[in-house]
Specification:
The chain is α+β, with helices and mostly antiparallel strands. It has helices at residues 2-8, 45-55, and strands at 30-36, 56-65.
């Protein structure tokens, strides 16, 4: 995925692979965090979410998206 992203990103874009449970960023580093279709792959979701909260600035936005389906009860 990083190779595909690098082929599309400009030289000003910094891309890394890391572990969502131990983010290599300082506290309050981001205004917005996107967690798209990845939380179900993380062994300790609570730890990953705590890490995202740690690196999110006060008033920042975390958008987490997962797959789901609705079962209709008749």
């Amino acid at each position: 995925m990083l190779a595909a992203a690098r082929s599309r990103a400009g030289s000003h874009v910094f891309l890394i692979a890391g572990d969502a449970q131990w983010l290599p960023f300082a506290d309050a580093s981001f205004d917005c965090i996107l967690a798209m279709h990845m939380l179900y792959h993380v062994p300790d979701r609570d730890l990953a979410i705590a890490e995202m909260r740690r690196v999110l600035r006060p008033g920042g936005v975390l958008l987490a998206l997962t797959n789901s389906h609705v079962i209709s009860k008749s």
